[in-house]
Design goal:
Length: 576
């Protein structure tokens, strides 16, 4: 549960406090008992989560944050070193923003609080450009000079400057191999149970997203299982589902509700669309605002402070149709016969020539000095733009370096074995974009994701890829370990419904508003070419190809800028 929400402090370098103290703690410690034993001699009489975190910092410095497992953010005033230290958990679930200005640091878990306190209104071009192309921008916010604490990092601000250090790293190079396949299943089952259990340490009602897919269904079923056996303090579970006309997911949603014997709330995307003209985020652009406001209202009505999701499950559980680069593992070990056998199996599923799969895997397995220049393009990167049609002005591409994702994102994933690069790249991008961060309308809740439980993530990222996914068997390990959590009908499900209809229904009215607008902020600011954008808006309205996923980002930012401009104009009129 969140304990702090508003602007926390205006900190100066000459704070007279005698010892270090926690200025802000927002979060949940999942390994609290272990830390109590480890830091018993340092805790004195205070055993709160914030005191535990401070004791860890005082003993190990910023590297000590790696011992804190859970969703959290923290601000510490380090009197001994004359510094203010801000840090965020490895997944960046709890937001934390800051701005440094001539001897002061402003910080808050709410972006708008920092904006109001600093008076900063100038937009950050790097953020806008990266958002239009990649859906976000690591470390930055829409406002120049206001930053987001990166996931898994600590930011130390002192009179000598601002330093950033990483305390958690991707487990690249690690691997766990068991002789018995059942050991993987047992380990996954135990960690998943733990991941859900630590998030149910509340006596209040719990909400859980239920989409009808395997990830959310697993979370709901495990939570229900733990509650029915009184293994957790939580007693009441309500599922929340988003439905629309002719949804392929709705039958599976109802099947899960019946299987678990729980009450489900269905929110229509017609009544609460994915995007609307005015509900596009307040301090920053955010999608799904109408839906999220509906869920926020429901949580207040029920008195729920915990909201579980199935996010990050696709990646963690190896939900890949094409994971044929697994062949490179055999090739690197010179097991050519095994690689050929695997290539035949993947060829049947993907309907691609065996020689092509072997060639791709061979290129990926080569040392970097020998590999073709585009070897890393072989993998399906999570932030690679699939279409060249973006409507972004070429001058902006050149000025902001948008052609090079490396200007914004870490390339640490390149060091991973070729068969694992796609996994590490996707996870790295998810964390850097803080895609798991609690949205603004839900900051009153513990919005949390069992599939981002760090011990579970670290285990699944070092399991051999062929254990997670096999030809024609995405989620191979998940299906063998967790299938008893699902009804028979769901066990047979191989794919999930897409949000195509809700997006089309929500975007078309907004697109018509923009198409008839005389002025567009993104055009006037030189971000987007008007002719290209108008053409794409027209094609969107008629259901033609327009690179819709990227066009959504343009529409979202444009509507957010319009809303922001209207707010500034209203404030000006009120002040006159």
């Amino acid at each position: 549960m969140k304990t702090e929400t508003e602007l926390k402090a205006l900190d100066t370098w000459n704070d007279p406090v005698e010892r270090s103290r926690v200025l802000h703690w927002d979060g949940r410690l999942d390994n609290r008992n272990d830390l109590l034993l480890l830091l018993a001699d340092s805790l004195r009489d205070d055993t709160s989560n914030s005191a535990i975190a401070l004791a860890g910092y005082e003993r190990w410095g910023t590297n000590g944050f790696v011992h804190l497992i859970g969703d959290w953010s923290i601000v510490i005033r380090d009197q001994a070193n004359g510094a203010t230290v801000l840090a965020s958990d490895f997944a960046g679930v709890r937001p934390l923003y800051y701005s440094v200005q001539i001897g002061n640091v402003f910080w808050s878990s709410r972006l708008q609080a920092v904006v109001d306190a600093t008076g900063i209104s100038e937009l950050d071009e790097q953020y806008i450009g990266a958002f239009l192309l990649y859906g976000g921008c690591p470390k930055r916010t829409p406002y120049k000079g206001i930053y987001s604490v990166p996931a898994g990092h600590a930011v130390c601000v002192s009179s000598t400057g601002t330093k950033m250090s990483r305390f958690w790293n991707l487990p690249i190079g690690d691997e766990v191999r068991y002789r018995n396949q059942h050991r993987y299943e047992e380990h996954l089952r135990a960690l998943f149970r733990e991941a859900v259990s630590v998030r149910l340490q509340t006596e209040g009602p719990v909400l859980a997203e239920l989409s009808g897919g395997l990830d959310s269904s697993s979370v709901v079923s495990m939570a229900n299982h733990l509650m029915r056996r009184s293994a957790v303090p939580a007693k009441s579970l309500t599922s929340v589902s988003y439905v629309w006309r002719d949804s392929l997911d709705e039958p599976f949603i109802r099947e899960m509700e019946s299987f678990c014997g729980i009450k489900g709330v269905h929110i229509s995307t017609h009544d609460a669309p994915l995007i609307s003209e005015r509900q596009v985020g307040d301090s920053q652009p955010e999608i799904h605002q109408p839906l999220r406001r509906s869920v926020g209202l429901l949580s207040r009505q029920l008195g729920s402070e915990v909201f579980l999701t199935g996010q990050n499950g696709d990646l963690m559980m190896g939900n890949w149709f094409d994971d044929s680069l697994q062949l490179s593992a055999s090739l690197r070990r010179f097991r050519v016969g095994r690689a050929c056998k695997e290539a035949v199996e993947w060829s049947k599923i993907l309907r691609l020539p065996v020689y092509r799969l072997l060639w791709q895997a061979t290129c990926a397995a080569l040392p970097s000095a020998l590999a073709p220049a585009d070897v890393y393009a072989i993998t399906d990167g999570s932030y690679v733009v699939k279409s060249t049609e973006t409507s972004i002005q070429p001058a902006l591409f050149n000025r902001l370096g948008l052609y090079e994702p490396g200007n914004f994102f870490s390339d640490a994933w390149v060091q991973a074995p070729p068969e694992r690069r796609k996994y590490f790249r996707s996870l790295s991008t998810t964390l850097e974009l803080r895609a798991l961060q609690v949205p603004e309308p839900w900051q009153h809740m513990d919005y949390t994701h069992p599939f981002s439980h760090r011990p579970l993530v670290e285990f699944l990222m070092i399991v051999p890829v062929e254990v997670l996914c096999a030809p024609g068997k995405p989620r191979k390990l998940m299906r063998s370990a967790l299938s008893d959590l699902w009804p028979a009908r769901l066990r047979m499900r191989r794919s999930k419904g897409l949000f195509n209809f809700p997006w089309q229904e929500a975007l078309c009215p907004v697109a018509r508003v923009l198409a008839s607008a005389k002025e567009l902020h993104l055009v006037e600011r030189g971000f987007v070419d008007r002719t290209s954008l108008m053409s794409r808006l027209q094609r969107l309205s008629t259901g033609l190809d327009c690179n819709e996923s990227q066009l959504r980002q343009i529409i979202l930012v444009e509507m957010w800028l319009r809303k922001r401009a209207d707010g500034i104009e209203n404030c000006r009129k009120l002040s006159e």
